[in-house]
UniProtKB/TrEMBL annotation, chain A:
The lineage of its organism: Bacteria, Bacillati, Actinomycetota, Actinomycetes, Propionibacteriales. The chain crosses the membrane at residues 15-38, 50-73, 85-107, 119-140, 185-209. This is Amino acid ABC transporter permease. Its main location: membrane. Keywords: Amino-acid transport, Cell membrane, Membrane, Transmembrane, Transmembrane helix, Transport. Signal peptide: none annotated. Residues 15-208 form the ABC transmembrane type-1 domain. It is found in: Cell membrane. PROSITE patterns: ABC_TM1. It comes from Nocardioides iriomotensis. GO terms for cellular component: ATP-binding cassette (ABC) transporter complex. NCBIfam families: HEQRo_perm_3TM. The keyword Ion transport does not apply.
Amino acid sequence: MDDIANDPGLVLNAFWVTIQLAVLSGLASLVLGTLLAAMRVGPVAVLARFGTVYVSIVRNTPLLVIFVLVFIAAPTLDLLVKTPFLVKGVIALTIYTSAFVCEAIRAGINSVSLGQAEAARAIGLTFGATMTQVVLPQAFRATVPPLASVLIALAKNTSVAAAFGLAEATARMRGLTNNNADDRWLIFITFAIGYIIIVEIMSAGAISLERRWRVTR
Amino acid sequence: MTEPLVVLDHVDKWFGELHVLQDINMSIARGEVVVVIGPSGSGKSTLCRTINRLETIDKGTITLDGKPLPAEGKALAAHRAEVGMVFQSFNLFAHKTILENVTLGPIKVRGTDKAAAEKQARQLLDRVGVGNQADKYPAQLSGGQQQRVAIARALAMEPKVMLFDEPTSALDPEMIKEVLDVMVDLAQGGMTMVVVTHEMGFARTAADRVVFMADGQVVEENTPDEFFSNAQSGRAQDFLSKILKH
Ligand SMILES: Nc1ncnc2c1ncn2[C@@H]1O[C@H](COP(=O)(O)OP(=O)(O)O)[C@@H](O)[C@H]1O
Ligand SMILES: [Mg+2]
């Protein structure tokens, strides 16, 4: 096998899979996590209970166990048998990350003063409109720092997918290191830098959002 | 049109063990301005909040325009749109501009189109004297300005009745007058108002009736002049002597 310097395509491809995993799971987790948070703060007791149970189960389960359930246990129950690896990776990461997104958003919602929701209800907004027009936009602003941490953790967690045969960055690195013991450090550092770049881009995005929203909070 | 606009009939409410509203009976005529006064913790805010059902009641009935308050859902939201509320802490939507604060209700609740809502909002902001602040955010305004915006936001829904819960208590003294002036204007324009306040000047100028509450009960009610110069109950006399001292 060629060494890393001679095969930039291999590296790029591996990072492309990582980015796809991170972006798709990130978007799905934001949607599912927001729904869960709305359930937890909403007026319907059954949904609130469901949200609470989901979050406490998932947060206390190691990511590896969730991957085992999605990649190994589910197929034995005839579930997700023909699903592509990338989709399974997104499912596992989303199940896990959405619980953390939910908690970050719920903390954000709780940081919005009760008076904001009362004023919204007092002009006749329904519960749904109160959430989407007044509470959630402010909660998201308060949520940017904790959400950024959650999404950065997600970017790093894509590496867990490696253990499940997904051709993402870490798996590719292991293949390369196995065959190129001499270049091991160079390869390791290259991939580490790749992760650092992804994480730095996300942090910079979070900081600029925070700055833009500072006046309006 | 002589039937009262708001009627509270044998209303009781408990917060756990605390009997916060005790057999409240009150009827408010169209165009009437009622000032509610009383010691802290006597249930004034709670009373105010039951009228737009931000607090539920345990016994009795409340009607607006002859119709009992809806319990929940869309009907309750529609009821709240008819009842304007102004809070002690303003509660302007922090992430929206002053203009957006005023247009949100008309656009989302009434389905008014954006241009018409903005035109109406600008008129209302001019009326309360903050027309030149339309594009700022609430945090950039003084307390007095924010409270006047809050009044404009409530008026934009064209409510049948306006509730004010200590609208000037959180304001620096020099800003109290600018808010009270707007309220006096409203009162003279025929708005039906329930105002929780200790501002005797406002009560004397604008109120038709003063209701004195203590410990969850309406202890006494009278015209402002009669109440302030000739309170009947010991509780009211005691209370008045305290607020007159400072
Ligand atoms: N949400 C609540 N839960 C429990 N007790 C409350 C709540 N809101 C108010 N109270 C209590 O009810 C009483 C009346 O409160 P409130 O209506 O705010 O009085 P006021 O506005 O006259 O000062 C107070 O003793 C207060 O502590
Ligand atoms: Mg009060």
